[in-house]
Design a protein that fits this description.
The complex is a heterodimer of chains A (118) and B (138).
Chain A: E1 2-7, E2 12-20, H1 25-37, E3 45-49, E4 52-56, H2 58-73, E5 77-81, H3 85-93, H4 96-99, E6 102-103, H5 106-117
Parallel strand pairs in A: 2-3, 2-4, 3-5, 5-6
Antiparallel strand pairs in A: 1-2
Chain B: E1 2-9, H1 15-28, H2 37-52, E2 62-69, E3 73-80, H3 108-115, E4 118-123, E5 128-135
Antiparallel strand pairs in B: 1-2, 2-3, 3-5, 4-5
The chains are: A alpha/beta (118), B alpha+beta (138).
């Protein structure tokens, strides 16, 4: 899995690409932890843009859950966006779409986290 | 009816090999790419569940996967000779729990039950066998 990290004024955006399975989960978790810690302290918000994410298993879901809790403790707003249908289905069936902020696209996610931060 | 089998040691290191096995079958049978994810997830979750249920001392359990393509569905059967355990006996996680209450594990089997049309466990006393079927629209 490829992971890109974009630093915006309002948020750090993590962009995973490919498959988030058991093998990819540990590295993904490390990268998100780094994004959450920030180079100069935690960012206001972390958004995970899932537009390029083709597959997620329970090992991947676990990373999202652990990250959401870490963000909550650090008072960092956290949102996901742009889930493909197969990924969205896994989030819906596990009930994760109800406990995490899952937005349609990046614009909606940025609006959500800026609202949560103000 | 198209059928394919493979057999690997019960070790998480072999997960990529199993995924490749599924993906190659999918491509060879020209199945719709958009419908592959639930089957891959079922294979990953059940295989890892077996791996996590451990290896008895002095034993080298193996996992056998068979794919059977029916007219309008795919059946995955996963057989192992590890400790006897029925994954369908696990209670479902509380999907209405809040962020703080959610346990971090226990999602895998629940997802498989939801994603597949039919899931059946059987044991002959020495093996676990889980058969999962889901419709494919083509």
């Amino acid at each position: 899995m490829k992971i890109a990290i974009e630093t915006l004024a309002m948020a750090t955006v993590v962009v995973p690409e490919g498959r988030l399975d058991f093998g990819a989960a540990p590295d993904f978790q490390r990268q998100i932890e780094t994004a959450l810690a920030g180079a100069n302290g935690p960012p206001k918000a972390v958004i995970i843009d899932c537009a390029g994410l083709d597959y997620v298993s329970s090992a991947g879901l676990r990373v999202f859950l652990v990250t959401a809790r870490a963000a909550q403790r650090a008072s960092v707003s956290f949102a996901l966006c742009s889930l493909k249908p197969a990924v969205r289905e896994v989030f819906d069936l596990s009930g994760f779409s109800r406990v995490l902020a899952v937005l349609a696209d990046r614009r909606a996610a940025l609006a959500q986290v800026s609202q949560a931060a103000s | 009816m198209k059928e394919r089998h493979t057999r690997v040691p019960s070790d998480a290191l072999h997960l990529p090999e199993l995924m490749l096995f599924m993906q190659e079958f999918w491509a060879a049978e020209k199945l719709p790419p958009a419908q592959a994810a639930p089957f891959e997830l079922a294979l990953e979750e059940i295989f890892l569940n077996i791996v996590m249920h451990g290896t008895p001392a002095n034993a080298e359990p193996h996992v056998e996967v068979s794919l059977v393509l029916l007219d309008d569905a795919l059946q995955i059967t996963i057989t192992d000779d590890g400790p006897l355990f029925n994954p369908l006996s696990l209670p479902p996680p509380d999907v209405a729990a809040t962020l703080g209450e959610r346990p971090v594990g226990g999602q895998g089997v629940h997802l498989v039950r939801q994603l597949m049309d039919a899931v059946r466990y059987e044991s002959d006393g020495a093996h676990n066998r889980l058969s999962m079927t889901k419709r494919i629209d083509r």
